From TrEMBL, chain A:
Residue stretches making up the HD-GYP domain: 186-382
PROSITE patterns noted in UniProt: HD, HD_GYP
All residue ranges annotated as the HD domain in the record: 208-331
SUPFAM superfamilies cross-referenced by the UniProt entry: GAF domain-like, HD-domain/PDEase-like
Name by which UniProt lists this protein: Uncharacterized protein
Annotated source species: uncultured Pyrinomonadaceae bacterium
Pfam families from the UniProt entry: HD_5
InterPro entries per the UniProt record, alphabetical: GAF-like_dom_sf, HD/PDEase_dom, HD_domain, HD_GYP_dom
């Protein structure tokens, strides 16, 4: 085979393999190592290295080296002047011996001379330096020909593209991660704000300390028992936390009155759902229906609630959840002129009012969640923490809950026509 | 990369015969170079690279062989290429590898 022809086949084989290697989504380190082998082997070059440029540190960090020994620096610093020159030069080999005017070559002169490095190729992709390739002497002892330089240009450009691609991917991953963190931060901020609001609401009412927070937790239990996804469950909790936000504008004397309030005071108090809705409506919530939960949490399935006397099918589902959670908490905590009712009475009340005040399937879900916890079917201790163990595990609760579950089966005559 | 690949090597006195096989042409061929370095470090004075099972040598293969040559020359050891086919000899001549090694038929 004529020598020239064989040379062509050998170098173009290397070029083709390099193109293939760079376009594959292989391990980056392996890609760079393979590329360096291909470049050195294509022209019979004894030694060399590939470095990646870090703009922040003005450093060239060696990614792969061949035959440069242990003493060769793994990181080379370049100054602005070097950078400018490399940029103007582009991806064309620079004769190291002829470039001594640049600070870079003065600083590393000894390292380059010790390893007989002859060429430095800046890897410039889209007007940006992404790295350099260093090349030592050829095995045949001859100087680099113009043919060699053309091959070097073509191959190093491929390596430059490989590094640029990697940089781009890293940047994309970094931004995606940053975005995710920002989103998490926003959600955390929102949750903290919601909790702060809930605490503010509860401070106003000295008799029902912690009410909003508990309603949030009960709403969460119901939503989880219904099999909602994590985000929806969180939304239900938020709706519970904020349901009484309208009370912030009601006179403290009315809210904290130790006596039964009169008709005028009752009218003022009963405005809190609508006021809450108006407060919450302009806020952008990550969960839908938070304002509606506030507005309709005092509606009843039988239409005897307020503010709009809505019937079952017209009441937003989230408001039904919060309504049940709210009433349950009212019955199970001490009030100014009423001690909390025993657990069995409360369950009987829920059962009696399923289809009247509460959506039966929600009462079912709530009782089921409670039964699961008492019978240790779940390891969660949510009810226990909210109500106290003694209260929750009073005699006869389990059969009562089972009976309630059998008796309701999730529907009633009222809800048959009104499922959302 | 084939992680199960093991370099074939035979030693006798201060000579080690390393079989290039087909792996020479892949990144896994770096193991051949490492094995040669190990032999040199262990006192071997002659490294024989056998090409009996190597049909062609690509650029990766050439680069790895240059690594072997570099390691040997640094330690004052000799490199011999044996069982090399004609086309490959021509390639080694063209790229200057034959300046550094002896070729054995
Ligand atoms: Fe309320």
């Amino acid at each position: 085979m004529p020598e020239n022809q064989q040379k062509l086949i050998h170098t173009f084989g290397a070029l083709a393999e390099l193109g293939h290697e760079v376009s594959q989504k292989n391990n980056f380190q392996e890609m760079i190592r393979t590329s360096l082998h291909l470049l050195l082997g294509a022209l019979g070059i004894m030694r060399g290295g590939v470095a990646r440029y870090s703009r922040f540190g003005h450093e060239l960090n060696m990614l792969a080296v061949r035959g440069l020994g242990d003493e060769f620096p793994l990181s080379l610093t370049i100054c602005n002047e070097d950078e400018r020159q490399f940029l103007t030069n582009g991806t064309v080999p620079i004769e190291i011996a002829q470039a001594k005017v640049l600070p870079f070559f003065q600083i590393y002169d000894r390292s380059f001379a010790a390893k007989k490095l002859e060429l430095l190729v800046p890897l410039v992709i889209r007007d940006e330096i992404v790295g350099v390739v260093l090349l030592g002497e050829k095995a045949n002892g001859e100087p680099y020909s113009s043919y060699d330089r053309d091959i070097i240009c073509a191959m190093t450009r491929h390596i430059g593209v490989g590094i640029a691609q990697r940089n781009l991917m890293a940047e994309l991953e970094r931004r995606a991660e940053e975005n995710r963190r920002l989103y998490d931060d926003l959600r955390m901020t929102y949750k903290d704000t919601v909790k702060a609001f809930a605490t503010a609401i509860d401070c106003k009412d000295k008799y029902t300390e912690g009410h909003s927070v508990r309603v949030g937790k009960y709403s969460e239990i119901i939503a989880a028992e219904l099999g909602w996804d994590d985000e929806q469950v969180e939304g239900a909790a938020v709706a519970g936390y904020l349901h009484d936000v309208g009370k912030l504008t009601v006179e403290s004397s009315i809210i904290n009155s130790p006596h039964r309030i009169n008709a005028k005071e009752t009218a003022a108090l009963n405005k809190h759902p609508v006021i809450g809705y108006e407060i919450l409506l302009p806020i952008h919530h990550p969960y839908a229906d938070v304002p509606l939960a506030a507005k309709y949490h005092h509606e009843r399935l039988d239409g005897r609630g307020y503010p709009d006397e809505l019937c079952d099918r017209d009441i937003p589902y989230i408001a039904k959840i919060v309504c049940l959670a709210d009433s349950f908490d009212a019955m199970t905590t001490d009030r100014p002129y009423k001690r909390r009712r025993p657990a069995n009475e409360v369950i009987e009340d829920l059962q009696y009012n399923a289809g009247r005040q509460f959506a039966p399937e929600l009462v079912t879900a709530f009782c089921r969640a409670m039964l699961k916890e008492i019978t240790l079917e779940t390891k969660q201790k949510k009810f226990r923490r909210l109500l106290g163990r003694e209260y929750l595990e009073a005699d006869g609760i389990v059969p009562l809950l089972k009976n309630a579950l059998n008796g309701m089966n999730g529907t009633s005559s009222l809800t048959l026509v009104s499922l959302d | 990369m084939n992680t199960n690949y093991k370099v074939s090597v035979e030693t006798s006195g201060e000579t080690a015969i390393v079989y290039a096989s087909d792996y020479l042409n892949k990144l896994s061929g770096e193991r051949i170079e490492r094995e040669c370095r190990r032999q040199i470090d262990a006192g071997c004075r002659t490294i024989v690279v056998n090409f009996g099972e190597t049909e062609i040598v690509n650029s990766i293969g050439v680069s790895i062989l240059l690594g072997v040559i570099d390691a040997a020359s640094g330690a004052g050891a000799r490199v011999v290429f044996s069982d090399v086919n004609e086309d490959t000899i021509e390639l080694f001549e063209m790229l200057g590898l034959t300046n550094h090694v002896a070729i054995q038929g």
